Amino acid sequence: MTFTGILQIIAVLLIMVLAAVPLSRYLAHIFKYEPTFLDKLINPFENLTFRFLNVKKEEEMTWTTYLKIGLVINFLMLAVVFLILRFQNYLPFNQMHYPGIPWALDFNTAISFITNTNWQNYGGEEVMSNFSQMALVFLQFTSAATGLVFAIAFIRGIVRHEAKYVGNIYTDYIKAIYRIFIPLAVIFAIIMLSQGAPQTFTMQKKVVNITGTKQTLSVGPVASMVSIENLGTNGGGFYDANAAQPYENPNPFTNALTIFMMGTIPIALFFMYGIMIDDKKHAWTLFWVASTLLVVCIAVIYSQEAHGNPFLAHLGANIKASKYNPGGNMEGKQEHIGIAQTSLFASATTAFTTGNVDSAHDSFMPLSGMILLAEMMLNLIFGGKGVGLLNMLTMVIIGVFIAGLMVGRTPEFLGKKIGAKEVTLATLAMFAHAFIILVPFGIALSTAGGLAGIFNPGPHGLSEVLYAFTSSVANNGSAFAGLDGNTVFYNVILGFTIFFGRYVPIICQVAIAGALIKKKRIPESAGTFPEHGFLFYSVVLGTIILIGALTFFPALALGPIAEHFAMVKGHLFY
Question: Which UniProt keywords apply (predicted)?
């Protein structure tokens, strides 16, 4: 670890937080249906869309209607994109005459992109036409909006009392896309274009390189995809290597910018939540809970990667950092990016559930890999668009319930009593996440189809399978790429885990909003448990660590932890 590296990490994180504060005010204005500075520009497009869809934007919905329409929209888009990928050979912008995507890979890919996961068992530049890539970009806008609008419905369930309606999902959807994602995506696409990311409908460009050799380069509408890929915490890139490909991530500035794009909106949503519930202290406390976890994760990864692999040191390799040697574990990393930014990127992409990568996660040290897994297993360290906040609030409900039991009082949350229904739904959401990871993980390790994709023996092979299911259920999409995921077995089973891992928790969480919105607001009393400050911070953080450890430690012990101790003892698996 170097002072310069630590300074780089602090600078990027600080800039994200500073940008998130004003952005949170803008987001709050949007979803409180208040005027914004973009009204004159965007209102005509919004109104035209409402007329085209024949939607009454002021007409609010119950939580069940809101949820049903949201799910139907998702499933319709899923069907359309499945057909586009399957029959891309009959569609335009396919200059390379790529055939239709095989059904199992198509099934996995369509589900993956509609759920904000963007798990890619393919190389986009090798199998996807530009038309198919643009269809996936469309889903990157809508999937980000889906998580966001369900979080807004949850917040309204907290804010409103003795009420029935949580908003209009059409209005929220359109506002999220038109007022947040499209403007920001255009801005950042232009920046990426200025840094060297291609933006063209040409699929290949023939060049002569510096050695005089002719070479064919894969290009396309890359800059526009990179911007929403990261702003929407999607992670699915134009290229197989994602941000490790220089056209997606040309230099250290774009690397830092990519981290900024991933994290700013998820952080802003925590602050927006405080504005909408009129309790900024409560929101800041949750911010510090998530920040503590994020900083610890970054510190562990950076220290492990900077320390390097002891096996290389035993073989005489110099793994100490110097003026001309980055030192540490540089396997799978780009030298011009360095270990510090790579460690920050890896932690950010798993914490914010983006899944975009600028390095080979499979080549990280065992404990670094464990931290990447842990961030996705918790799935609330700011998390993806809306979903991270939903998961944090779900854990808060469980935490205040436990605290209420400890002091012998009926648990309360922001002036509303937490009853059996809310606790049951919160518990279902939390354990569904774990169940959908661990059960298919066990199936994969006990069947021929699952074992056939493992090429690395021992604990690391187990970690690769665990990472695949964790990444899928957490809507992340990054991978320990040593696992062969492009088989019928993994395409199908991961497709189902992605689907249920996305929608089962959301259904439970929107149902919690429906229960909370009907409740009366109770005035504070001397016995009311504080919902901000160090005590509340400790309860929430303790609940997250305790439940996370009890749920996932056995699986982690068999994978990355076992691999770490084997490495320390000098044992290799061949």
Answer: Cell membrane, Ion transport, Membrane, Potassium, Potassium transport, Transmembrane, Transmembrane helix, Transport
Report the C-alpha gap between 71 and 469 in whole angstroms: 23
Distance CA 357, CA 198 (A): 19
Q: What is the pLDDT of residue 206?
A: 87
Neighbours of 47 (CB within 10 A): 12
Question: CB neighbours (10 Å) of residue 253?
Answer: 11
Please give the angle made by the CA atoms of 385, 388 and 393, to the nearest 5 degrees: 130
Predicted confidence (pLDDT) per residue in 286-328, tens digit:
999 999 999 999 999 999 999 888 877 777 777 777 777 777 8
Cβ-Cβ contacts under 8 Å for 352 (sequence gap 6 or more): 233, 262, 263, 266, 381, 382, 383, 384, 388
Residues facing 206 on adjacent strands: 216
Among 537, 559, 441, 528, CA closest to 493: 441
In this prediction, residue 553 carries a pLDDT of: 93
Q: Which of these, 470, 442, 411, 457, lies nearest to 573 by C-alpha position?
A: 457
Report the distance separating Cα 269 and Cα 290, nearest Å: 12
Give the closest residue to 439 by CA, choosing from 402, 469, 403.
Answer: 469
- C-alpha torsion 154→158→160→165, nearest 10: 30
With tokens 């396309």, the residue in question is: 220
Task: Count other C-beta atoms under 10 Å from residue 278's C-beta.
Answer: 9
Residue 377 CB neighbour total at 10 angstroms: 25
pLDDT number for residue 228: 95
Nearest-angstrom CA–CA distance, 373 and 358: 17
Strands 214-218 and 416-417: unpaired
Residues 6+ apart with CB under 8 A from 221: 130, 133, 134, 137, 198, 199, 200, 201, 238
Q: How far apart are CA 154 and CA 277, in angstroms?
A: 11
Map out the domains of the chain as residue ranges.
20-269
Q: How far apart are alpha carbons 355 and 461 in whole angstroms?
A: 20
231, amino acid identity: L
Q: Determine the Cα–Cα distance for residues 168 and 62; give it in Å rounded to an integer.
A: 9
Amino acid at 455: F
> Do 156 and 166 form a contact (C-beta atoms < 8 A)?
yes
CB 425 within 8 A of CB 509: yes
User: How is residue 477 written in tokens?
Assistant: 């999409």
Write the DSSP assignment of 162-215 as a string of letters. S--EEE-HHHHHHHHIIIIIHHHHHHHHHHHHHTT--B-S--EEEEE-TTS-EE
* DSSP assignment letter at 177: I
CA dist., res. 82 & res. 74, Å (int): 12
Give the residues of the chain that fall short of pLDDT 70. 526-527, 574
3-state secondary structure of 9: helix
DSSP secondary structure, 142-176, as one string: HHHHHHHHHHHHHHHHHH--S--EEE-HHHHHHHH
Structure confidence at residue 574 (pLDDT): 59
Pairing of β 412-413 and β 214-218 = unpaired
